[in-house]
Amino acid sequence: MKILVLSPSYPRHEKDSRVPFVRASFKEIAKTEDVTVVASSAPETKKFSQVMDNVKIHRFRYFFPQRLQELTYTGSGGMSESYRKSIMAKIQAPFFLLSFFLKARKYAKECDIIDAEWLLSGLIAIPLKWLCKKPIVCVVRGADLRSMPTVLRKFAVKRIDIFVSWTPELTSLLHKLGRKEGIVDIKQMIDFDKLKDKGNPNSFKKEFNIKNEKVITFLGRMVYMKNPLGFVRAIPYVIAKRKDIKFLMVGDGELRQEAEKLIKKLKIERYIILTGNRSDVNNVYRATDIFIALSPICHTYSATIMEAMFLGVPCILDMPTYTKENFAHKKYAYLVPDNDPKALADAILYLLKNNKLRKLLSKNGPLLIKKLGFEKKTIVEKTLKLYRKTIENYASK
Known about the structure:
CATH topology of the largest domain: Rossmann fold
CATH superfamily of the largest domain: Glycogen Phosphorylase B
Distance between the termini: 20 Å
């Protein structure tokens, strides 16, 4: 089976942390199937064709000179953040779409099915479906269903053959856009293999002069969706009662400067470490006593939460939509009210003192991963079965 994957971005090299879930998925699928990826180039990209994990990757340039490209591979986060904050990114958007389509058309003729990662790629895939007579499976992830213009979302949602939704929130968003059928639940591939190596958490602690302190960690993009400022605001309440704690903020994004200003305003610099992006997340999790995930919108099932649970790190989560239904309080996670720094601080202090509850959460986390269907073998089998069924159904029309 020949699969053409359309993805706005794709890891540029072996150690690239960009969209790791996309790479993890097709790394496994390429073990038995023929996988070709079309993705954008980056300013530092020298080769426009490469092979990584047995996946053939072909990149397109969408602006000249290439170093001025600002839609993808930026420090601000995903494409939606880049588009929102940069005039240059807005100017480049139509060139991006045209270049994406022209590059994809070159490889669409030979494939059996098109896998569109994010709804934007689905828009590119629709004319290829008409021109090359190929079915489309589109994997949605959230920002695409929230931020794209409504007219484009409705256009794409109506014309794509099958959608893969890995969370109840994404399914609900598709329903609101008028899509009721042709939605399949297959969980996002998370590269748990990279976490199995015990690594060297002591070296990580030594790097940041962490000694006997308890470590409380925020890991993720520093953007509105992840509420990093809510994490910072809880710290003064914690250190008012305990001083033997270090707070880690691992990641980068458009809210980093605002977080740094808030840290100075609250005078908590000695208790918090901003590490920036890290490739050794294995060490980060293993050095962590409690993992914190916050969101004003939804974090079911955030990759960082799943990774922390896989390694048995107790998690504290706030409760945007779908959290209570999917993370039972005091069974799989400790839940706190939304946007309540005092409640978050109290939860941290309580969990640090309650060894029995921490051990229970640590034990149950890996069990939830298996229960939800995040195992690699399950995801690959479901995905390949979906591809074959979609191809058969399209051919019979």
